[in-house]
Amino acid sequence: MTHIGILGTGRVGANLATKLAAVGHQVTLGGRTPKENAARATGLSPRISFADQRTTARTTDLVINATPGDSALDRLADLRTELAGKILVDVSNATHHAEDGLPGDLVHPGSSLAEKLQSALPDTRVVKTLNTMLFMVMTAPEILTTPPTAYLSGDDDEAKKTVTDLLADLGWRPEQIEDLGDITTARATEAMVLVVPHVLRRKGFAPFAISLAR
Fold first, then answer.
1. Span 3-203 CATH architecture
2. Domain segments of the chain: what residues?
3. Positive or negative torsion for Cα 196, 199, 201, 205
C-alpha cells in the first residue's frame, strides 16, 4: 500500500482516488479550500481523506497532479519544498479555453507542462502519463472496444517503473503502456489534446483515448 496524494478534487482527481482506494491504497485528496474538500467528501471510501494541497504534498509518498493544467505550474512550483524527493505524476494538459470551454491552444507551445514542472521542481521526479484520454478511461481502460495506450514520459527510469506499477493497479496491462523516453517526449502527448475538442464536439462526451495501433 502506498499513501498517494492527489492535488485536485474534480472529476479526474476523485475518479483516480476512488479506484486507487478500492485497490488498497490510502489516498489524500488535496483541495484548495476546506469548502471545496467538504463539497467532494460525500460517498467516498473511508480510505480517502482530505487536506489542503500543501499538506497533501508534504504528507504523502507519491503525488498526482490533477489540477487544471493552465494554472498548475505556478501552483506546484509553490510546493517545491513539499514535493522534494517525491515522484510527481502529471496527468494534466495545459491549454487555453476555447469559446465553448473545451481545450484550445497549448499554454506551452514548443514545450510541455511536464517539462516546465520538472524544471521548476529539480528535486522532484516528474512522470507524465494518462493525459491522452477522457478521465473515465484512466481507471477503466477495459471499457474501450480498442485497447488504449497509456504513454509515459520522464527522466528517471525508477520513477517510471513505480508509475507503471501504479498504472497496473488502475487496470492497465503491460502491453498497453508505452514508455516514450525522457520528459521532453511529453510535449508530443500533450499536443495530442488538440484532437480532443474536435472529437467531443462531433461525438459528445463519450469515453475515448488517443492510442497507438500496431
1. 3-Layer(aba) Sandwich (3.40)
2. 3-203
3. negative
| Dihedral in degrees, nearest 10, Cα atoms 153, 157, 161, 164 | 10
Distances in Å between the Cα of 51 and the Cα atoms of 31, 38, 65, 129, 157 are 7, 10, 15, 24, 30
Q: What is the pTM of this model?
A: 0.94
At 42 the pLDDT is: 54
155: alpha, beta or left, given left = phi > 0 and alpha = psi -120 to 50? Answer: alpha
Pairing relationship of beta strands 150-154 and 125-128 according to DSSP bridges: antiparallel
DSSP state of 131: -
The answer to whether residue 134 scores a pLDDT higher than 90 is yes
pLDDT in tens, 12-43: 999 999 999 999 999 999 998 655 555 555 56
